């Protein structure tokens, strides 16, 4: 698809609105169940750690799509709440390895409760087929942006 002048391209605005609503609703639902250990934004990091148990800060940034400075801020708060711990990488002392704690592992129950409500709110009017098509379209869009971003970074480095 190519850009067409005077065409209504509102999907970027809509994606931003969806993201903002999702974060606000997610945090509201966490509050409703009394979970104060993490936020929606921090859950992106927790999800990566639930899958892999321990990662470097750069790996977390790559897994989540978050900027490294944002990862640092979120990790500081997760550490204060006892959800993660940091340690020096024995192979490279300049690197920090982030490991999920038992408390962080247990937080998955609260995450799953909230996620199920978020899915039921956001996708209540979708059929299974519509959801799968939507998911595939988002993955395709995400991959296009990732490829551009990664190639753009390589051009700046070289």
Automatic annotation (TrEMBL):
InterPro entries: ArsR-like_HTH, HTH_MarR-typ, Transc_reg_Sar_Rot_HTH, WH-like_DNA-bd_sf, WH_DNA-bd_sf. Its main location: cytoplasm. Keywords: DNA-binding, Transcription, Transcription regulation. One of its GO terms (molecular function) is DNA binding. Residues 1-143 form the HTH marR-type domain. It comes from the Bacteria. It is found in: Cytoplasm. Gene3D superfamilies: Winged helix-like DNA-binding domain superfamily/Winged helix DNA-binding domain. One of its GO terms (cellular component) is cytoplasm. The keyword Cytoplasm does not apply. Belongs to the SarZ family. This is HTH-type transcriptional regulator SarZ. It comes from Succinivibrio dextrinosolvens DSM 3072.
